[in-house]
Amino acid sequence: MKNLLELLFPTPPSCVLCERKAVQRGFCKLCWESLELIDDQQRCERCGRAWSEKGTCSDCRRRSDTYFVCNRSAVQYNDKMKEMISLYKFRGLELLAASLALFLEQAYRTHYTELHFDAITFVPLHEKRLQERGFNQAEQLARILGKRVNIPVYSLLTRIRYTEKQSKKGRQARLEVLGESFAALPIPPSSPSIKRVLLVDDIYTTGSTLNQCAKILADQGLLVYTLTIAR
């Protein structure tokens, strides 16, 4: 399986950002050192962001309803990680998938290996956005992760409302737009016993998208945890 993944999503020999010799997960030494890993001892207990205090961060305390148990992420969403994810999502640089999936796997193995998930699912794209982009980055990452950790991946959500890109919107604007954007898909007949699911996306910013998706899944009686590359 590892050889197949390397064939489909090879780790490049040159740095994915600057083309110097890659030494770590597809990065050169300089670019790798510019990434900021989230310290497991200094993070929000709910959303997983880097946080120097104990308990939950100010963002999570402001949220009135949270439908996922917790989120965990591998790295901070700094300028270097933003550049990398933008190249992947918006420039179609799919060779980055393998390197990015390693961050997901790192966060999973650090925080979630004892939880025994029944399934992995992912934040869906609207059909129009999928046609524009050519692939759903969350699905692609989720499927690579599922193969690496041996958990089945199912499409449990659909996006029923086309929205403009959320990256430049604030919290309230996102909430207003996302309210009726998602719906549940049937649980596969072959897996009726799904109870605990891991919801994957690339970035946790305000958490609005993940929380809306988690609400739909929770309404189906599922216990939802979330996982992203960056926070």
Entry keywords:
alpha/beta; 231 residues; globular; DZR_2; 4-stranded parallel beta sheet; 6 strands; 37% helix; Rossmann fold; 9 helices
Structure description:
The protein is α/β, with parallel strands linked by helices and 231 residues long. The chain has a single domain (39-230), classed as 3-Layer(aba) Sandwich (Rossmann fold), CATH 3.40.50. It is built from nine helices and six strands. It has helices at 2-8, 29-34, 58-62, 79-90, 97-111, 127-133, 137-149, 171-178, 208-219, and strands spanning 71-75, 119-122, 157-159, 182-184, 196-203, 223-230. A four-stranded parallel sheet has the order 1-6-5-2. Strands 3-4 form a two-stranded antiparallel sheet. Helix 9 links the parallel strand 5 (196-203) and strand 6. Helix 5 packs across helix 7 (137-149). The relative contact order is 0.17. Residues 133-222 form the Phosphoribosyltransferase domain. Belongs to the ComF/GntX family.
